[in-house]
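Incident review: delayed structure delivery

Summary: a single-chain prediction request sat in the queue longer than the usual turnaround. Root cause was a stuck worker, restarted by the on-call engineer. No data loss occurred. The affected request and its eventual output are reproduced below so the record is complete for anyone auditing the incident later.

Affected input:
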Amino acid sequence: MKNLNFSLANLPRILWGLALLTVPVTSFRWFPFLGEGTLVRPLSLYPLALLLPLLLIQAFRRKTNLYVSGAFVALGVFILFVFTISSFGILIDPIPLRGQEYLGRAIRALATLLIGVIFFISAVWMNKDENDFRFSVKWVFAGLCLTILWSGLQAVTFYTGLLDKEMVTHWQLAFSMRELVRTNRISGFAYEPAWLAGQLATIFIPFLFASILTKFRLTRFKWLEPILLALSLLILLATYSRGGLLTVIAAAGLTFLFFGHDMLRSTWIWFINGFRGRAMDMLFRIGMVVVVIGVFAGSFLFLSQKNFFRRLWETDAENLSEYIIDINAGARGAYSAGAMAAYEEYPLTGVGLGASGFYIYQNLPDWSLTTVPEIAKQLNPENRLYPNPKNLYVRLLAETGLIGFFLFIAFQFYILSDTLSLYLRKESWARFAAIGGAFAWFAIAFYNVTQDSLTTPNIWLVSGIMVGLSATSSHKEK
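Output delivered after worker restart:
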């Protein structure tokens, strides 16, 4: 009986660890009641579907508590407004598009929001102190290790010929909705390379970068985090994701700007002192500079192999719209422009969650109708796909208006406030958590420009971890 009680007491942690381990699988094939058009299918939802009811039962029996912070209030107000405005959207009742009606799209969109909130609440509930946080990050790193191994297998398949591509494709289709990417871009367990790059930018690299910046290590293996960071950056390059690379560069730059003063000062002193001592010390530092320059040059040459990357600087566009088309971003820009028509018609309240797609095709910009092949393909009468804005901020403006948009932004700044409150604590682990959380916050802010899904765990997990740690700390202080 004691062993049974012990197992039940540890079951929430086991389920939470499984959820973090399976986060990289974004488009799990075996989900019931979902059509082929539903691409965001996180495997981690399965263990969370068991975890959350278990936590609610324990809370009812007063064996655990969920501490509420200001972020919960902001999120609650946002959800309440979204449900209210989506109900009002029935009165607008846009014309059905390709068999899709407003009520069905609204229910679907509200379900995706609910899934995202499940990720957030679970992360808050399962991270209350240092031990919980260490447990979570270790399982995040375990998921990263699996991603690195599978990505390495894909790289061997693409670039060496040691493995048959068709065979590896069958392996991947056993769990994923999509086969290997035909352009030989690494996608890991995600649906496409850009999704993998988003995972690296918002979940994995933040804590690895924070470990380097604070010299904090989760294990006795001091080399683990630097090695994982180097491999993660290699995989990021192999995705050839422009948005992912720019997100990591921008988030790393801002994080280093705000939190890296001490490291920058000590590194500069160490570098300068090397030129005042022995010749070997001076040569070592010059060699390091050469290596760094070589790494950046090699990365640039590696990325230049892909034509769509070279178009960023090899273009003869005469205006912004031509440049957007040249860099293969014309479809995304057109979808966002079409969705903004819904915002212009209903600027305060929007048209209801999930309804922006009804307004996109009829409001596409003129330049996209003749110069963007993807748009021509989408406008084919035989095409049954429902369009999306491809930008979460544009989607929120179109579907929830200015009110919903600013409520969501307020929720994000509450998360940032909770993250920074951890940085003020003296414990080394708390500063490590805060810097990782800040990196993730910056990355999510940029990442949302290139995606519009409220289901993806990327925008909820690390945020929930930060809120959980901060809320518990504030509760103990009170």
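Verification: The CA atoms of residues 116 and 456 lie 7 Å apart.
Action items: add queue-age alerting; document worker restart procedure.
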